[in-house]
């Protein structure tokens, strides 16, 4: 990886971050959820709705056969309507502002102005969904049922409705038509477990590195190394350890994990000390 | 002049082992984060009622402690796992601490007492326009069909009309209004199924007419105009056979509620459309989202109104055959809705 590629990656990451300053003056740096995650969440929700509808239908069929009354048909129709229309509204009004699909993907709905997410906003954004989901299907259906409509006109209709449905691909903030109208965003909200502090491990002082040996890497490399250490995959550790040894010119003398842990700990201490004095070295290409 | 304030070193330590280490910072603050995480999980799972008063007092303190930890960690620590955890915890905490809303019951009460009528009141201009558009559609088709019955077939789908067209006899038309012998024989079975079908179908049409509003309101206007056209054409057919008054009653009993709801859904769509085209002093996005929220409230009301209309149409119309009674119920419903929406009342303080 080159310096340019590194910088590009950082820029791409920064492009998804939106400043979100709390009343305490801390910027929470919300990250916009990607279109892929949104689509995944929608798929999960649709599957769950279909499943719930199927079970509900089976149940009503059973009740209907047992009671021989057509009230069950009414209950079934109402139930299906409520399920379809209020699945998203109901879940997004909850404490976590996310449907099961969104929870699975680790995303949630947030009011764009930083205020609280109100019920009317949730209703508005989800009624628009009706249009976004079903207009392309309706166009297809209408085109197929009427012979006079030529294929080209049908294609034009489907494309037109798809631009509405895929609206979120055409703006930076990944807003659906419904988000736009309700004034909402969908942002990342995954949970992160607090992992153990690997910098205080007893093995951390097993070997000492000189200042020049530590000066070859920056923050980016440090955090990659952290990931490898937390992953605990022996093959990855061997590769990384060999790469570092080659770079700083040390012979293989000790276990990979001892070597890596010591190196990580001393590199981290060095970079953090510099950070305290206002010097942030992003990666190995930046000047020390 | 800026000046670095270097913390006075704790005497026993040397430079090589700085007295501020991120590991020590973490060891000192970690308990707070874990406690905050625990409280948040409890809050998410069981709601605010599950917290004791002690815990409720702790919540904002722990929240602020976590936010301050995040600030310090961002400035001093390079431990990615720690930073990610604190960031996620702070975001979760922010939305729970600041997002605490009123109880469901309170919200429901406020919606019915204040928010719903207020939202409908605020779109009165759009409602008037949509009502005029529907009327215009009805008048257009009425005059066209009256002068030349052939026009009817341009306006109303053959399947939809179910034989109610200019070629039908007066007797047949009468039966479709629920009068005469044939109607009585059809009986009452399946009425509720019919009512439910009407409700779900009409709701979806209104949701569509609302949702189409953002395209500058044009599709909404077209949809509403088209609704008026179908109405007028039918009216012309029936009045040509001298059944205009009866048809009016057949329509009126649920029509006042249903057409009102249709006009409101169109008005909600139009409000969004106009906000996008003429945002006024605000930004376009801001105007759209403000309009969207008002329209969202109106739409919940529309679905409830359509439910009432479905009941009236499915049960009331089929069971009540007397035209005058039908008119009376229709008028009563109209007066009820008008009073509910437009009689001024003191605004809710919250």
TrEMBL record, chain A:
Q: What is its main location?
A: membrane
Q: Note one Pfam family from the annotation.
A: RDD
How does the record say this protein sits in the membrane? Answer: Multi-pass membrane protein
Domain (RDD) spans 33-183
Cell membrane as a keyword?
no
Q: Which InterPro entries match?
A: RDD
Keywords in UniProt for this one? Answer: Membrane, Transmembrane, Transmembrane helix
GO cellular component term, pick one: membrane
The entry's protein name is Putative RDD family membrane protein YckC
Q: Give the source species.
A: Sphingopyxis italica
């Amino acid at each position: 990886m080159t310096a340019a590629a590194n910088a590009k990656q950082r820029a791409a990451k920064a492009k998804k971050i939106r400043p979100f300053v709390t009343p305490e003056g801390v910027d929470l740096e919300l990250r916009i959820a990607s279109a892929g995650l949104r689509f995944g969440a929608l798929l999960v929700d649709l599957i769950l709705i279909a499943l719930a509808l199927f079970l509900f239908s089976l149940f009503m069929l059973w009740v209907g056969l047992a009671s021989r009354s057509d009230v069950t048909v009414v209950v079934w129709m109402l139930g299906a309507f409520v399920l379809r229309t209020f699945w998203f509204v109901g879940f997004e009004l909850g404490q976590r502002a996310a449907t099961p699909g969104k929870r699975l993907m680790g995303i949630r709905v947030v009011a764009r102005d930083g205020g609280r997410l109100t019920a009317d906003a949730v209703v508005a954004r989800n009624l628009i969904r009706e249009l976004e989901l079903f207009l392309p299907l309706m166009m297809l259906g209408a085109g197929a049922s009427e012979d006079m409509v030529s294929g080209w006109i049908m294609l034009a209709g489907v494309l037109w409705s798809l631009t509405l449905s895929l609206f979120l691909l055409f703006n930076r903030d990944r807003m659906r038509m419904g988000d736009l109208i309700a004034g909402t965003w969908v942002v990342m909200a995954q949970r992160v477990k607090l992992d153990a502090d690997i910098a205080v491990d007893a093995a951390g002082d097993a070997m000492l590195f000189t200042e020049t040996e530590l000066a070859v890497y920056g923050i980016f490399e440090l955090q990659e190394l952290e990931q490898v250490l937390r992953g605990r995959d022996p093959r990855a550790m061997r590769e990384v350890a060999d790469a570092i040894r080659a770079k700083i010119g040390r012979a293989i003398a000790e276990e990979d994990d001892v070597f890596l842990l010591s190196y990580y700990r001393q590199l981290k201490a060095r970079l953090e000390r510099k950070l305290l004095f206002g010097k942030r070295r992003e990666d190995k290409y930046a000047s020390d | 002049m800026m000046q670095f304030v270097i913390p006075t070193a704790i005497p026993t330590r040397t430079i090589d082992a700085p007295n501020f280490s991120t590991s020590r910072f973490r060891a000192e603050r970690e308990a707070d984060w874990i406690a905050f995480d625990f409280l948040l999980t409890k809050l998410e799972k069981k709601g605010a009622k599950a917290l004791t008063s002690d815990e409720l007092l702790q919540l904002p303190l722990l929240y602020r402690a976590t936010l301050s930890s995040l600030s310090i960690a961002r400035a001093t620590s390079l431990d990615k796992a720690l930073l990610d955890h604190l960031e996620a915890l702070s975001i979760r905490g922010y939305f729970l601490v600041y997002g605490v809303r009123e109880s469901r019951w309170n919200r429901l009460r406020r919606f019915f007492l204040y928010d719903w009528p207020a939202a409908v009141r605020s779109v009165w201009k759009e409602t008037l326009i949509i009502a005029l558009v529907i009327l215009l559609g009805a008048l257009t088709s009425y005059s066209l069909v009256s002068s030349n019955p052939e026009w009817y077939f341009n306006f109303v789908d053959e399947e939809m009309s179910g034989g109610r067209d200019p070629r039908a006899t007066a007797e047949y038309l009468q039966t479709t209004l629920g009068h005469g012998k044939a109607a009585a024989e059809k009986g009452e079975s399946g009425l509720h199924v019919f009512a439910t079908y009407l409700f779900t179908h009409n709701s979806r049409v209104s949701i569509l007419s609302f949702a189409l509003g953002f395209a500058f309101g044009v599709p909404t206007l077209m949809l509403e105009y088209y609704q008026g056209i179908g109405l007028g054409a039918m009216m012309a057919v029936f009045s040509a056979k001298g059944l205009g008054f009866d048809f009016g009653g057949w329509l009126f009993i649920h029509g006042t509620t249903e057409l009102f709801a249709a006009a409101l859904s169109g008005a909600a769509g139009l409000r969004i459309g106009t906000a996008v085209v003429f945002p006024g002093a605000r930004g376009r996005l801001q105007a759209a989202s403000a309009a969207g929220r008002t329209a969202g409230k109106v739409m919940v009301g529309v679905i409830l109104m359509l439910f009432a209309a479905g009941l009236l149409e499915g049960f009331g119309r089929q069971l009540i055959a007397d035209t005058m009674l039908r008119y009376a119920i229709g008028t009563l419903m109209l007066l009820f809705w008008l009073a509910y929406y437009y009689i001024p009342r003191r605004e809710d303080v919250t």
